Structures are given as C-alpha cells and as structure tokens.
Amino acid sequence: MPTAGELNKLVKIRRWQDIPDAGFGIEQTFDAGFDVWAKRAPVSSGIFFGSMQVNSAVTDRFIVRRSARVTEASITGEHVVEHGGLRYRVKRTLPLDGDAVFVAIDAELLGAI
After folding, report:
1. What InterPro entries does this protein map onto (predicted)?
2. I need a labelling partner for 95 at 20 to 30 A (CA). Which of 22, 41, 43, 86 fits?
C-alpha cells in the first residue's frame, strides 16, 4: 500500500490503436488520455525474469488510486502509460494486495515518446 505522498508522479493513461494506413502499413494512434497520480516502481528481478521467460516483459509497476476510470477491467493491454518522456505498454492490471482502493498496473517500457 502506498503511504501518504507516494502517489507523486503525474502519468497519462492513453488508449492505443493500430490503424491501417494507405501504404499497407500500420499507423499507431493514441487518444487524448487522462492524467492520474501514481507511484512508479521497477519490478523485482524475479518478476522481470519470470516475465521474460514467457516473452511478456514487465519492467515497471504503476500504482494508482481506483476510480471510475481506473479499474482492472478498464485499463487493459490496449493502453499505454506515459511518464517522463517514456511510454510503457500495459501488460496487466490487478488490485493491489487484493484491496479495492489501489490498482497496480504492470507495464513494459517501450521507449521514448
């Protein structure tokens, strides 16, 4: 559980869509998204290497307060988290410690925006 003041990173959550373009390629588009306060933490080495074994790298975890917009069902692999000029692809979301107050978002670092 985050303590008071630990949700100190303003992140943007955006929906990611791949749309075919005229040149038979794919164009990545993102909606305007919305801002939430989060705690960002690197994942433990066990989680990182375990995720690499199943070819689904998880590099960072964002902990956010549950709201009408942020639940395990509403934030999916179709979303990205942007913070500090970097973009992270959402891999999974889960209630933090089985509680209904915070949501943990496990994500993979994609690179600079």
Report:
1. Phage_SPP1_head-tail_adaptor (IPR008767), SSP1_head-tail_sf (IPR038666)
2. 86
Q: What is the DSSP string of 42-61?
A: EPPHHHHHHHHHTT----EE
Under 8 Å between Cβ of 107 and 58: yes
Chain segment 3-55, per-residue pLDDT in tens: 878 999 999 999 999 998 888 889 899 999 999 999 998 875 555 555 555 55
Q: Return the closest-CA partner of residue 40 out of 57, 60, 23.
A: 60
Q: Return the DSSP state at 25.
A: S
Give the span between the Cα atoms of 4 and 16, in whole angstroms.
31
Q: Rounded to 5 degrees, what angle do the CA atoms 73, 89, 35 make? A: 70
Domain boundaries defined on the chain: 9-112
Give the integer Cα–Cα distance in Å for 101 and 94: 11
